[in-house]
Amino acid sequence: MSGRRYIVVLVLVWALILTWGVYLAFEGTRMARAEEEHYEDLVHRGMLTFAEHCVVCHGAMGQGVVGPPLNREEFRGHPEENRDVFDFIVQTVRDGRPGTTFPRWERLMTGEWASYTAMPTFGSVHGGPLNELYLRAVATFIMMGDWTQVGAHIPAPTIPEDREELLERLPNGTGLTEEESRQAKEIFVDRGCIACHTMNGVGGKVGPDLTQVGAWTQLTPVHEWEAFLREWITNPPAMENRAPKYWSNYSGPLPYAAAGAGAQRDASAVAERLPATGSPVERLPQDSAAEDARGVWMQIPIPEARPLGPTQMPALPMTDEERAALARWLARIGR
Fold first, then answer.
1. Where are the alpha helices (DSSP H) in 152-276?
2. Alpha carbon of 122 to those of 241, 300, 303, 325: distances in Å?
3. Which of 60, 102, 142, 197 is 20 to 30 A from 150 in CA distance terms?
4. If phi over 0 gives left and psi between -120 and 50 gives alpha, with beta otherwise, what is residue 64?
5. CA–CA separation, 196 and 206 (whole Å)
6. Is there a contact between 91 and 125 (Cβ–Cβ < 8 Å)?
7. Whole-Å CA distances, 71 to 50, 77, 118, 206, 279
8. Is 316 helix (H, G, I), strand (E, B) or coil?
9. What's the pLDDT score for residue 3?
10. Do the strands 198-199 and 202-203 form a parallel or antiparallel pair, or are they unpaired?
11. CA–CA gap between residue 269 and residue 256 (Å, rounded)
12. How many CB atoms lie within 10 A of CB 237?
């Protein structure tokens, strides 16, 4: 009799062990799937949020334009395994970074652009549109998401059906005649620029807002900015220095050791126009700086560059005359 009880107990023990084994195996799979679904949801939320709020500065592929490139290998990974990167992205989106309200680029003597542009505060704690869930979602998308899916979720352009109303909403170029501005505005609309770029609240949300594009640089002469914009319009994919590679709010303050070809500036005049995030222009020995027209040696610290990804802006079909008229207008908007 005792032997039979022993067998019954043994069978029950093994049945319990097997039951727990099956449960734990199933529970482990269920929890793993739940975690996977959690991150899939975060990535999707983050992609939609990025498409709505971030594309105009960072590009649909995260390639960087007004804002620095985000589609970078050092930002990729799993949030739990790369916690420092995740926390850095969340904090940056929530709290922003210092700089100028509107885009501000200045050309270094190397020919490359440096940016002094602020990163806005998107966190709801600062009055922004994103609560903590969506901040985490954006960071998760940047680390784990598929950049090729962003373009399908960018908000549709806002373009008035009435052509005259649309042209009236677009700004005139400072110093241009009404006829010159109108010609350029018609090119901007007819060649499809309006479908991707916003001006004064009308247009697309794929590329940067160009409402103040003429004032993006204040130390570069207008004719040089015009030449830059014309080159950009002619063949964006082939343009090497089409956007900043140095960011004052990423790599530390950068002085305005900048000027166009043959247009060096007095160091004291440059220093007076620095934003709050800029550092003073310093006098240095000849072997450690470049000399301006008045013999003042200016420091040019070159931090690590942020390589630009391929641009999505195509080379639009235009005549040389149309490109010239468009660049002339753009270079004078907001000046």
1. 163-169, 178-190, 222-234, 248-251, 267-272
2. 29, 32, 27, 37
3. 102
4. left
5. 5
6. no
7. 12, 12, 19, 16, 29
8. coil
9. 64
10. antiparallel
11. 10
12. 11
In sequence order, what are the residues at sequence separation of 6 or more whose Cβ sits closer than 8 angstroms to the Cβ of residue 151? 51, 60, 61, 206, 312
Hey, is 191 helix, strand or coil? coil
pLDDT given for residue 114 in this prediction: 86
Element (H, E) at 106: strand 105-107
Q: Locate tokens 């005259």: which residue?
A: 164
Query: Token pair of 214, please?
Result: 């003429």
Alpha-carbon distance values, 224 to 112, 218, 221, 229, 231 (Å): 14, 11, 5, 9, 11
For residue 34, the model assigns a pLDDT of 73
Tokens of 313: 């802006």
Gap between the Cα atoms of 219 and 107, Å rounded: 8
**Identity of the residue numbered 101:** T
Written as six digits, the tokens of 283 are: 């006098």
Give the pairing type, strands 246-247 and 113-115. parallel
Tokens matching residue 55 = 């594309």
Helix (H, G, I), strand (E, B) or coil at 117: strand
How many C-alpha atoms does 113 have within 13 Å on its Cβ side? 27
Residues 291 and 297: their CA atoms lie apart, in Å, by: 4
pLDDT at 203: 95
Query: Please, what are the averages of pLDDT over each run of 10 residues along the chain (335 residues)?
Result: 64 65 59 78 96 94 91 93 94 92 84 88 95 96 96 94 94 94 95 94 94 91 94 89 83 52 39 38 34 41 66 88 96 92
**Domain boundaries defined on the chain:** 2-254+301-330
3-state helix, strand, coil in the chain (%, to 5): 50, 5, 45
pTM as predicted: 0.77
| Cα radius of gyration rounded to whole Å, the chain | 27
Q: How far apart are CA 150 and CA 138, in angstroms?
A: 12
